[in-house]
Amino acid sequence: MASVILFTSVTAAVTLFNFTNINARLGEEKQDEQAAISDDLATIIQINDKFSCTDANNCSSGITYPNENEYIPGDPNGLSAICGPDGTGSGFGPKLVDAINNLALAPRLNELNITRSAKIPAAINTNNTPPHLYSIEWKKDSITLRQITLMPTVASWCP
User: Fold this and answer.
1) Which end of the chain, C or N, has fewer beta carbons within 10 A?
2) Which of 36-50, 57-71, 90-104 holds the top average pLDDT?
């Protein structure tokens, strides 16, 4: 009888130990994923904040932060071409999204099999969504780990 109780106790302890280890590893993996995404997001926010346009065809994210006179040229025709005729950011929006999508993934994101995609939401042209927004989504195995919507600093100069 004592051996049955001892066997049951040892089995329960081993099962509990294994369960705790599995949960700890899963928690650590989630922390690693979120930390890698946060590092990637920090880089994207710098691109977002430094993105400027000299005209409708020349938009990029520079090394330094532009001053208030360097985000967009002052002439109304250039402003309309950059901001889009309806002020939706149709001039710079796709260029910024392309710059983010062409940004190489950090090695840690690749190691964790996390993908990133930026896009301009389909609802951007409705009254429900403010103009100039774009969203970024990080996924692993078709499961969204994080999604964020940003507005580029350059949009502050558009009507």
Assistant:
1) N
2) 36-50
What CA–CA distance (Å, rounded) separates 3 from 159? 81
Q: Exposed/middle/buried for 36, CB within 10 Å: 0-12, 13-18, 19+? A: buried
Q: Minimal CA–CA distance to 157: which of 94, 96, 67, 95?
A: 67
| Counted domains in the chain | 1
Mean pLDDT in residue range 120-124: 67
Q: Which domain holds residue 92?
A: 2-157
d(CA 123, CA 56): 23
CA distance 137 to 16: 36
